[in-house]
Amino acid sequence: MKQKVVAVFALGLLMTAGCTNYVKQPEKTNAAQVTPAGDPLSSWNSGDIKDAIIKYVQTVTDSADKSYIPVQDRIATFDNDGTLWAEQPVYFQFFYALDKVREMAGQHPEWKTTEPFKSALMNDMGGIMRQGEKGVLAIVAATHAGMTTSQFDSSVAQWIDTAVHPIKKMHYNAMVYQPMLELIKYLQTNQFKVFIVSGGGIDFMRAWAENVYGIPKDQIVGSSIKSKYEYNNGQPEIIKLAELDFIDDHEGKPVGIQKFIGRKPVFACGNSDGDLQMLQWAASNKYSNLELYIHHTDADREWAYDRKSAIGKLDAGLDEAQKKNWLVADMKRDWKTMFPEGK
């Protein structure tokens, strides 16, 4: 495979030896979407980035301006991990998979002595790492495949409402970025059709992202495993299989955009080299376009990482952004607030 599965579901998460066990809390936490009156991007500090975004939207939605973009061509694409919500110390979908291993362990006593499950149950990330891509695949297959799509949707929705991040001690759906919630709402208000185009699992995101981001399920593009249709006693079902179908990362993102959207974006936003090709694709649009990178620079409120990070590496993308004058939002400088409700 040209793109490692690790880069889709768990790239670099194998490097996080010593992660604590997950904490469960009963209360439900949902991110609030806020569009303050008079300032649609109130969680953004005043400066060149905020000004450029607002100027772009005002210009391309003005029918009298030469840069006007027809409504049907106002396509905006956003990466998810590290762009709309946090992604450290590992991609959150892998936290889900490891949590499910623990939950399912009672049905699989053999896991106590079988890798990579033995290491997962012992919270030994180094042990999982030694199993390589094959080990990650085994965990993903065991926790994602075999269920109907409705069962998987219910499982993820329950997890996202209860699981707590081992470091931040926050619900995962509270670790979305308030400035990005405002940006999505601002674009939607100006008749942009907003899509998520992510390397994460499409069904994993669809289980919760619509409620959190206000982006419909049919506007979410992601990586997927294969499924099959069954008609069991008159009951139609879609069953998830333990086999890869589509990798929506790096070069896969423009392919996914063409395959599932059919229109080239005019606004593209990401945070890593995995998003570079998506931004390049948007930059080739005949219409006026805007490319935006989110740069993780705030070690106090979140994490600071870029060129040498195992998760969310931003190296070639940062160079190209500087070369082509794409926007690079510095989280520490440009964002007043990180998470909703000031978290």
UniProtKB/TrEMBL annotation:
One Pfam family linked to the record: HAD
Recorded GO MF terms: L-phosphoserine phosphatase activity; magnesium ion binding
EC identifiers of the protein: 3.1.3.3
Transmembrane segments: none
Keyword S-adenosyl-L-methionine attached: no
Top-level taxon of the source organism: Bacteria
Enzyme class per UniProt: hydrolase
Cofactors: Mg(2+)
A biological process from GO: L-serine biosynthetic process
Pathway where this protein functions: Amino-acid biosynthesis; L-serine biosynthesis; L-serine from 3-phospho-D-glycerate: step 3/3
GO cellular component: cytoplasm
Protein's recorded name: phosphoserine phosphatase
Organism (species): Chitinophaga jiangningensis
